[in-house]
Design a protein that fits this description.
Length: 378
């Protein structure tokens, strides 16, 4: 999961570190040159202060010193060379205390590196702008060790990414469902997004928490959609309310809620039709289903592999229907991660779960900190 973006970000941070370290080494060299120039100046001043009568005596002393230096050099050749490890330790300590105040131009360079990577991985532009703003707030004026900055940069970028994400605690979700009986969930999304499988996974989760779900087979448009839901319902031993193909989906939702009330079921999960694209007929159909069922939560199901497309779909559904949360399917085979990093920021609605396989238990709670940590992990 997110293999491509993980590698690219890691490469970018290494590149950033090298650039910042080169700048600091350049500054260090300039400081050393200044010190050397000052020493030479002091030496010249000292020579000026020496009286003429002392010069002859000094020349003799210099000759003696030069002779002694030659003898010392010969002795040094015999002695062992300095321990390289000790020398490296000294250099390491020297570098660790060197501090560099990060400027806006430094942040611009860091952002430029990160921006390229994130754009390549389908992250929305507005998300990038938020990350840039966050990086400036966190980094400008900060004094850090430039030779040991990799971990520091990693943490700052991780936190900036986490700040763009919105999660939803799993236990809070379950508590919300238990607060009302029956709790009605409307599931929406385009064709091929994984709505049917995700509904089955949600029902399995509810069963594991002691809740009794019922499924409303509201997709009366797509061939075999009802049969597919029936297979899952039979395996999970969950009741399913269905009508014939071509019937009114709102009527199916109404009957399912009515059944849940009489049978004292805890949760109603309403499936709906999708289309290969979002058209007016689909929107009007969904509006009617929502108006009749009055759901307590509307969940958008999207395919993580479609990148920017799924984010645009979520935007349209949120504008036209209104959504309360997102679930992204196929996250286990998503190498880029752009949809995960963009959808909650764009819609301002949390990600509930990530689908990570075909099994009923392959639905993992979304945690923004853990996701950012995973992407920025070593």
């Amino acid at each position: 999961m997110f293999d491509f973006i993980k590698k690219k970000i890691k490469d970018s941070i290494n590149s950033i570190q090298k650039k910042l370290s080169k700048e600091e080494e350049k500054d260090l060299k300039e400081d050393e040159n200044k010190e050397e120039a000052l020493l030479k100046q002091d030496e010249l001043e000292l020579k000026k202060e020496i009286l003429p009568e002392d010069k002859k005596e000094l020349k003799e002393e210099v000759k003696e010193i030069q002779k002694e230096v030659k003898e010392l050099k010969k002795e040094e050749e015999i002695l062992e060379k300095p321990d390289k490890k000790e020398e490296e330790k000294v250099q390491s300590k020297k570098r660790s205390i060197l501090k560099h105040s990060i400027s806006e131009s430094d942040v611009d360079m860091i952002y430029s590196e990160i921006k390229t990577v994130l754009l390549e991985n389908n992250v929305a532009l507005s998300v990038l702008e938020n990350i840039q703003k966050d990086l400036k707030n966190k980094l400008v004026g900060e004094s850090v060790s430039m030779f040991g900055n990799k971990k520091y940069l990693n943490n700052v970028i991780r936190d900036s990414i986490a700040n763009t994400l919105i999660g939803y605690d799993k236990e809070e979700f379950i508590s919300k469902i238990k607060s009302k009986k029956p709790f009605v969930i409307l599931v929406i999304g385009v064709n091929g997004a994984g709505k049917t499988t995700t509904i089955a996974k949600l029902c399995k989760l509810f069963l594991s928490k002691g809740l009794k779900p019922v499924i409303a087979a509201g997709d009366t448009f797509r061939a075999a959609s009802i049969e597919q839901l029936e297979i899952h319902a039979k395996k999970l031993k969950v009741p399913i309310i269905k009508h014939t193909y071509g019937s009114d989906p709102a009527a199916v939702a109404f009957d399912a809620i009515k059944h849940a009330n009489s049978a004292k079921e805890d949760v109603v999960v309403i499936d709906t039709a999708g289309r290969s694209d979002i058209n007016k007929n689909l929107i009007e159909e969904l509006k009617k289903v929502k108006r009749v069922s009055k759901p307590d939560m509307t969940i958008f199901i999207g395919d993580a592999l479609t990148g920017n497309d799924v984010v645009k779909q979520a935007e349209v559904f949120d504008k036209e229907i209104g959504i309360d949360a997102n679930i992204l399917s196929k996250a286990d085979v998503d190498k880029k991660g752009g949809a995960v990093l963009s959808i909650s920021y764009i819609t301002k609605k949390p990600i509930l779960f990530l689908g990570v396989g075909q099994g009923y238990d392959d639905l993992i709670p979304f945690n923004k900190e853990k996701t950012a940590e995973f992407i920025l992990g070593e």
